[in-house]
Amino acid sequence: MNTHHIKQTINNNIATLCFDMENEKVNKLSQEVLREFQSHLEAIKDNREIKLLLITSAKAHIFIAGADINEIKTMSDEHDIYNVVISVDAIFNELEQLAFPSIAIIDGACMGGGLELALACTYRIATNESKTKLAFPEVKLGIFPGFGGTQRLPKLIGLVKSLELILTGKTVDAKKAFRLGLVDKYFSQGHLDFESNSFISDVLKNRVRKRKKTFSALEYFSFTREIIFKKAKENLVKKVHPDFKGPYKALELIRDSFGSKLEDGVEKEARAFANLAITPESKNLIDLFFISEQIKKDFKHVEFDEKIQNTAIIGNGVMGKGIIWLFSKYAHEVRIKLRKIEQVQDILNACNKLYAFFVKTRKMTRKEVAFKLNKISYTDKFNGFSLIDFAIEAIVENSEQKINTYKNLEENVNSSAIIASNTSSISINSLSQTLKHKERFLGVHFFNPVNKMPLVEVIPSTYTSQESIAKTFEFLRRCGKMPILVGDCAGFLVNRVLLPYINEAGFILEKGNTIVTIDDVLKEFGMPMGAFELADIVGIDVGYKVAVILEESYGKRMEVSPVLKMVHNDMKLLGQKNKKGFYIHNNKGQMVVNLDIAKNLTQNSSISTKKEIVNRAIFIMINEASRCLEEGIIKQVSHLDFAMIAGTGFPAFRGGLLKYADDMGIDYIVDKLESYSELFGERFTPSDLLYKLKQNNKTFYTGESLWNH
Ligand code: NAI
C-alpha cells in the first residue's frame, strides 16, 4: 500500500491512524486521502488483536480541515459527484461499523468533512485550545455537509442544535461542543496525553457512560417537529436570500430524512448534495473562497523587520472609536491623542459597548476585557508617542488639519513608525507631500462599523515602501481584517463604485417609483440593503459629502442626484442617526418610509420596471468598476469582486459585481448602457474597457490583458 498521508501504528492492541497529509500544511479529505484511509480500515478491521482505533493528526492546530474543495470545484457532472459522495459514505460507514470502538482525538480545526469523519467514530474528545474549532461551514460555499453530516448530527445532538450548526455554518470551541453533546470530553492541551490516555483506558474497560441526550421535547412528535422546521425556515427567510441555496436545501433534506434509517438518509443526502454542488451559485461561492485564500497571501512574501505592536489613534469620532476598540483587542499598546481629556469617558463607553457582545456570548471574560481596556492610554499632547510604531489619523475630512496632524506625528513617533490616514476621499499622494518620510505613509481605509466590516482598503502613495505595505497588511490580518491593495483616487475603490448605486436610486425615484419599491427590488436582487436604506444607515450627510467629492473629481457622470441634494440641502435629513431620512427609524431598529419625501417631489410617473431598476443601479456600478480596472486602481478583477462583496455586501452567490457582468454578457451590458445613456443621461456611457471587451469578444475574467499591460 502506498501510504503517504496517513500513518498507521498498532501498539498494545490499539491502532492509530494519524493524518499527516504529504506536502500540505493542513489535512484535507481528497479522494486520494480517503482511498488511503479506506485501505487502512480494510487492513485493521479483521484484526482480532485490535481493541480500539484512534484517529489523530500530526499537523499543528489542525485535525482535518475538511473535504478538498478543489475537487468539488472542478466537478460539474451531477452523477459523478453523487458517485464520489456515495463512495465516501461507504468509507465512513465502514468506520462506524468497526467491531471495536473508535475515538477521534481533536486538537485543532475539525471542519466539514473532518467533522463528518469524527461523527462516524464512536467517541470524540477535544482540546480546549483556541485553534480547536468544530464546524460545518459548507453552507458558506453554497452546499451542505454531504458525507453523512446532516444525518449523523441530528441523531447525536438533536434536531434543534443540529439545525443551528448546519444552517449557519457556525463554529464552536471544545467547551461549547461538549455542552452540545458533540464531543464526549474536553481538556486543556497541556493535558492531552494524560486525559486521552485516561479516556482510552475507560473505553477499554467499558467504563465510559453514554452521555444523556438533551434533545428538545418538540423533536419527539411529528406535529411539534413541524414547528421546529417552520421556525427554522422563517429565520432563514429573514436572513438569507433564497438564491443562497445551501441552508434552504439542507433544511429541506433534514426535514425529509428525519427519522429515516441512516443508509436511506445518507443516500438522500448524496443525491441532494450532488444536485446543489453543480449550481452556478455554489460554483461562485467556491470560487470566492479560493479568491479570498489568494488575497490572504498578498504581501506575505515581502520581508520586514519588526511587527507592529504599539499603536496610536488621533481622532475619536465614529471611526476613531471603532479603531481604538479594534487595536485594544489586538495590539500591545493603544495611545490616544485627544483634544480634550474629558473625552476619555466617551471612548471607554464606546469600547465597553463593543466588548459587551463578547462577554454576553461568553467569548471573553470581564477580566479579559479589563485587560484589553487597560492597554489604552490617553494624552492631550503628543507625549508618550516615542514607542509608537503605527499611528492612524481618523479626524475630520479636512486636508489642512490632517497634514498638520502628520507633522506632529512625525516629530513624535518612533523613527521607523508607519503613519496612516483613514480618509475616505482625500488623495493619499496629496496628503503625503509635506512628510519627511513619505515611504512610511499610506491610506488605511476602514469601513463603518469597524467591528463588523472585514474589508480594509490599503492605499499606498507613489512613495510608500513595499515594507510599509507588508507590515500594515500583517498587522491588519492580526486584527482579523481582510486588507486589499487599492490605488489612489477619489473614493478609492469601494465608495467610488458604490456611490453611483445610491445616486442612481435617487434618479429613479425622482421620476416615479417609490422608495420602498426601489429598495425591495434591490434586496430581491440580493443586496443586503436597498439604496435608500443604505443612505440612511451610512448617514445622508456622510453620503452627500462623498457624492460631492466624487462629482468634483469625476464630473458629469457622478453628478449628485437632485433627490440626494433635496434631502440633504433642503430637508436637512441625516438618516438613522437622527431617526429621519428616507425612512423614519425607531429605537428598535424598525423603520417606515418617510412620506414627506414623495410630497416634495414632482414625479412624472415615469415608472421603471423591476428589471430596469436593477439594471440601472447595478450596471452603473459595473461601468465604474470597469474604469477602476482600466485606471489600475485595482489589478485583478477577482480582487475587485471580493472587495465589493466584503465592503458592500454585493450578493456573494452571484460571484461578484463583474462576475455577474460576465454572466449577463458583455454585449448585453454595453447595449443596455448605450440605451440608458440615450434615455437617462451620459453617466451611462460605456467605458472604453467595456467596448474593448466587446470588440475582443472577452469577458472581465478572460480579458485581463486588455487592462493589465
Ligand atoms: P467624526 O466627525 O465622527 O469624528 C472626527 C473626530 O475627530 C472628532 O471626534 C473630532 O473631535 C476629532 N478631531 C477633529 N479634528 C481633530 C484634530 N485636529 N485633532 C484630533 N482630533 C480631531 O468623523 P468620522 O466619521 O469618524 O470620520 C473620520 C475620518 O474617517 C474621516 O477622514 C472620514 O472621511 C473617514 N471615514 C469615515 C467613515 C464613516 O462612515 N464615517 C468611513 C471610513 C472613513
Structure in words:
This protein has 709 residues and is α/β, with parallel strands linked by helices. Helices cover 49% and strands 12% of the residues. It has 29 helices and 20 strands. The strands form 4 sheets. An 8-stranded mixed beta sheet has the order 13-12-11-14-15-16-17-18. Helix 16 (399-412) links the parallel strand 14 and strand 15. Helix 10 (245-257) packs antiparallel against helix 11. The protein is globular, with a radius of gyration of 28 Å. The site of 1,4-dihydronicotinamide adenine dinucleotide has 21 residues, from helix 13, helix 16 and strand 16.
Structural class comes to alpha/beta
Report how far apart the termini are.
50 Å
Strand order, biggest sheet?
Answer: 13-12-11-14-15-16-17-18
Q: What's the overall geometry?
A: globular
Percentage of residues in DSSP E strands: 5-15%
Helix content: 40-55%
Cα-atom radius of gyration:
28 Å
Question: If helices are DSSP runs of H or I spanning 4 or more residues, what is the number of helices?
Answer: 29
Major sheet: 8 strands, mixed
Bound molecules: 1,4-dihydronicotinamide adenine dinucleotide
Q: Would you report the number of β strands?
A: 20
Query: Taking all residues together, what is the mean pLDDT?
Result: 94
Please supply descriptive tags for the structure shown above.
single chain; 709 residues; alpha/beta; 8-stranded mixed sheet; 6-stranded mixed sheet; 29 helices; 20 strands; 12% strand; binds 1,4-dihydronicotinamide adenine dinucleotide
